[in-house]
Amino acid sequence: MKSAAFNTLVILGPTASGKTHLGVALAAELGGEILSVDSRQVYRGLDIGSGKDLTEYSVDGRAVPYHLIDIVDLDTEYNTYMFQRDFYAVFERLMSRATLPVAVGGTGLYLDAVLQRFRMVETPENDDLRRELGSYSDDELAHELRSLKPKLHNTTDLIERARMIRAIEIALYARDNPPPRAPDIQPLVLGTRWERSELRARILQRLNDRLARGLIEEVEHLLSRGVGSKRLHSLGLEYRYVSDYLGGTIKSRNDLTQKLSTAIAQYSKRQETWFRRMERNGTEIHWIDRGDPDAAMAVCQDRWDARA
Q: Does one domain contain both 290 and 274?
């Protein structure tokens, strides 16, 4: 095998493209452990709708360890900073055991937080700064933010005033309080891809499976526990649309299936757009048609360091 410097395997792709199946297969073959890169699977109680599918984390009866799943309750507003902090902590533990981290997921911001290796810091609110920035126009705020962060990775911070002010607050705090260096992550990035018609069919089949397994009942249970519709809307398409169905906004189960499968397919396109942007920004992605494990393993074998 050729020698190559990589110490982390990353499996990304749009929703329903078989990332977990591929990641688990490769982790089992290479002696790795899974690090979930998913903004919803961190939450306890979001099981069916978030696609945890924990039964997939085994190969031939042998469990493949996983991390960053079921780590916070729904009253926590988990964010990118928390994810990066938690990911780095697990990464360093695995490195200390000479175990390969296999990062699997499709949450773009979380992927960038790991692959771009910009170290985030927990930033307190600065009331004096906020009062000063409150007098700025939107254009002045955008100019200030771009001057502080010429390589702004998250352009959604430019959408509204509150986000711009918070981003400036964070950038100034990080400038005056330099964060520790990020871990030495050297990734090999694989992407799962399908023809559009095949992916749409997989999305619909997976949705029907989740409905049959009790997705609606899961959302009913969350509502009975006091999780409000507003919170459910923030937790992804499945929870948003099912809560609307239960609230009567969507009139029938057939309408729910049609509307939700269409929305998920549109979301998958946005994910693919994000991945193309990652490639334009310098991330090399080795695309694996239909998530084929043998093809993925061939790439790993070609690139795997001599220590393997």
A: yes
Q: For tokens 């061939």, name the residue.
A: 298
Q: Which of 176, 211, 242 is the last residue of a domain?
A: 176
Q: Are residues 166 and 261 in the same domain?
A: no
- On the question of pLDDT at 3 being above 50, the answer is no
Q: Residue 71: inside a domain, yes or no?
A: yes
Strands 58-59 and 62-63: antiparallel
Write out pLDDT tens, residues 232-254: 999 999 999 999 999 999 999 99
| DSSP conformational letter for 55 | G
Q: Is 172 exposed, middle or buried (0-12, 13-18, 19+ CB in 10 A)?
A: middle
SS3 33: strand
d(CA 270, CA 21): 22
282 and 228 fall within a common domain = yes
What's CA 57's distance to the chain center, in Å? 18
Residues 211 and 263 in one domain: yes
| Residue 72 DSSP symbol | B
Q: Which of 264, 260, 267, 232 is nearest to 247 (CA)?
A: 232
Residues 95 and 113 in one domain: yes
51-78 pLDDT tens trace: 999 999 999 999 999 999 999 999 999 9
Q: Into how many domains does the chain fold?
A: 2
- Other CB atoms within a 10 A radius of the CB of residue 304 amount to 19
Note whether 191 and 157 are same-domain residues. no
Whole-model pTM over 0.90: no
Q: What is the maximal distance between C-alpha atoms in the chain?
A: 62
Alpha helices in 31-160 (DSSP H): 80-96, 108-115, 127-133, 138-148
Q: What SS3 class is residue 300?
A: helix
Q: Is residue 3 part of a domain?
A: no
As given in the structure block, the two tokens for residue 4 are 């190559």
Structure tokens at 308: 């393997």
